[in-house]
Fold this protein.
Amino acid sequence: MGEAAELMVRTGLSTLLVDMRGALGVFTSWDVLQAVEPEELLAPVSEVVGSLHPRVSPNEPVETALESMASSGRSVVLVGVESPWGFLEPLSALKAAVEGLTAGDAAEPIDVFTHCEGALSEVVAAMVDAASRLAVVHSGWKPLASLDEFDVVRAAAGFWVGQRLRSGGGA
């Protein structure tokens, strides 16, 4: 699992084709989330959150969301400026742009919120329970940042590499 997560981080891919003794399978970043154990990833969420995902007003055209994704190099844009309530990813945003929708019309709801003081493993458990690939981190009622499943893959890969190095397994 750790090697797969490391490979995802190195290549930037969120899906791997794996050979399981002759049978081909698909391994995704969602599989990494489901493999995280509760005692792992105890680092506070505030340490893991890198940069903010871009945000767009619900009234903006979807093309604005696509431009924000491209300029920031992020794969998710949050819909709602002060308090995000939805998100767009490239495929859904492209489909919505073809249909001429606004960001608000095309947004998927966000149903996982977490306090920034919590441990990352708590966020992962909440994401898996809600089948959500995105969590919004907040302090009080103020949204600070967001975590998506690939942010978790990066954190998990770092954790599993550290475990291997501590046990003498090498890099």
About this structure: The chain has a mean pLDDT of 84. Residues 149-166 form the longest helix (18 residues). The two ends are 15 Å apart (CA to CA).
